[in-house]
Specification:
By secondary structure, the protein is of the alpha+beta class. The chain contains five helices and six strands. The strands form two sheets. Strands 1-6-3-4 form a four-stranded antiparallel beta sheet, with no helix packed on it. Strands 2-5 form a two-stranded antiparallel ribbon. Strand 3 and strand 4 form a beta hairpin.
Length: about 180
């Protein structure tokens, strides 16, 4: 994926769009059942063969990032039984409270969908240039940690230049 420098205005706009998509996912989860299942599964309008404009591609890409973040947080909670605070890898006080409330509510609803869908646990991959909502990522090459307290594009690793990351989680998993 090509990366391009983003202005503060672009990131602010993407952050607002990420939040709106998150709120939409939460509304769908509260409606229940198959709508969240399909939304999380990526059965939306982001068909690569579909001829959509640049803005449509950006929205589809952002939807993919939100789905990934929600599914990753739900898998973490399902596999470890730990609190979502532990998944973040840093103090929740660094996050705007309203955004945290929306994200954690959506993640709780996503956890229910994960149970319903009986998803198999798999490691989520994160790449330079993609958007991420919250949490701490570790570089797959050198394990350098990048902390995200707001929506941002994932930069190359500042230590080694690596471009592939995974969710960094401290502590041993619960038995």
């Amino acid at each position: 994926m090509k990366t391009h420098p983003s202005s503060d205005k672009d990131l602010e706009t993407m952050g607002e769009a990420y939040r709106e998509l998150l709120e939409g996912a939460l509304r769908k989860a509260r409606q229940g059942g198959s709508s969240l299942f399909h939304w999380l599964g990526g059965h939306g309008h982001d068909d690569p063969q579909h001829d959509i404009d640049q803005k449509g591609r950006e929205v589809a890409e952002l939807e993919r990032y939100v789905r990934r973040d929600l599914a990753d947080s739900a898998r973490y909670r399902h596999e470890t039984g730990r609190d979502l605070h532990d998944w973040l890898g840093f103090d929740v006080a660094l996050i705007e409270q309203a955004f945290w409330n929306i994200f954690s509510d959506a993640a709780d609803q996503t956890l229910l969908a994960v149970h319903e869908m009986r998803l198999q646990a798999e490691v989520s991959e994160y790449h330079t240039g993609e958007m991420v909502g919250l949490g701490t990522l570790a570089c797959d090459k050198c394990n350098e940690r990048l902390h995200f307290s707001a929506v941002a594009r994932i930069p190359p690793c500042p230590r080694c230049g690596g471009t592939h990351f995974h969710r960094a989680v401290d502590g041993p998993p619960l038995a």
